[in-house]
Amino acid sequence: MTPSMQSYLEAKRTVDDRALNRRVFEQFTAELAEIDEPVRVTEFGCGVGTMVSRLVEWECLPTRTRYHAIDRDPESVVAARKRLPDRLEAAGYRIVDGSDVPEAERREDGLETTVDARSRDRRIDLSLEVADALSTATGDDGDRSTGPEPDDARSRVSGSDDARSRGTGTADAVIAAAFLDVVDLDRALDAASTRLEPGGLLYAPITFDGATGFAPPHPLDERIERLYHRHMDDVRDRDGGSTTGRQLLSALPANGFELLATGGSDWIVRPRSGESGGYPATEQVFLEAILETIDDALAAYPATVLDPSDRTTWVSTRRRQLEAAELSFVSHHLDVLARLEKRRTKK
């Protein structure tokens, strides 16, 4: 059974936790701490909310943060709305219903927040929006919605209007995690620079950079990897590419960004050692989704390029190894931190 996108994104969280380059991450959070509060963060492609959960649980957000999370998939945003209140509470935050918050606070910067989260010394105003982040940032026409209204008042982490989403300079930082390699890079950087304050930060972790591997080795590995990456670059009917990570290193300066830090952030998934066996957390689901993605990519090739029996042999072998907890996986990424002009700093 093919995992849902939401199951894949949730299973990916522990993989990303290990992969994130700590040096780049720590520089990003240190830069955030220097910005005049409230610090305004916009996330492109927020998925089910794992990045904001991570930042909260790792205590990496400034004392006062306004966090605007955007994703074009309504089901992922609904999942984020359901999960985030519990995760915020587990991290020591109290969920405050918007009706208890003064109007002047709820409508700061043109953003209406119906629920905020407060701990003893921190406050996060969180908004989730169903939209194409690249269209809303640049003012292009595109689908926009705050998504279906959840039933539980604790889950009404929602609400944003055009003043916030379409204006320029509405964020101190843009996060684009595992995002830039599946969109048009020039358009994404334009959207980020439009959204950012002068001096704002762009943090782009887990950006794919051209290497996919499995163990134990298989005679078809090299060919499968080459065709899989070619599918990303030339075959699939969407933007993005297999070498976006390295492309960023030159694209950022060309688009007015100063490159502050970069580092490797490889996905490495392997079976647990010892008697426990299996895979950590729900990482078997993650690997199932990866194999399904590769299988779908290979299916796009005619028999003159890839014999269907070769595809079947490779995929079925990898699935048997996964079921037996014998399969390991490595995928190369880069984490990148950049700054647009001069940062707005504390007074």
TrEMBL record:
What keywords would UniProt list here? Methyltransferase, Transferase
Query: What domain of life does the UniProt record list for this protein's source?
Result: Archaea
A GO BP annotation: methylation
According to the UniProt entry, which residue ranges have a biased composition of type Basic and acidic residues? 141-165
Q: Where is this region: Disordered?
A: 135-168
Q: Name one GO molecular function term.
A: methyltransferase activity
Query: Matching Gene3D superfamilies, A to Z?
Result: Vaccinia Virus protein VP39
Q: What is this protein called?
A: Class I SAM-dependent methyltransferase
* Source organism per UniProt: Natrarchaeobius chitinivorans
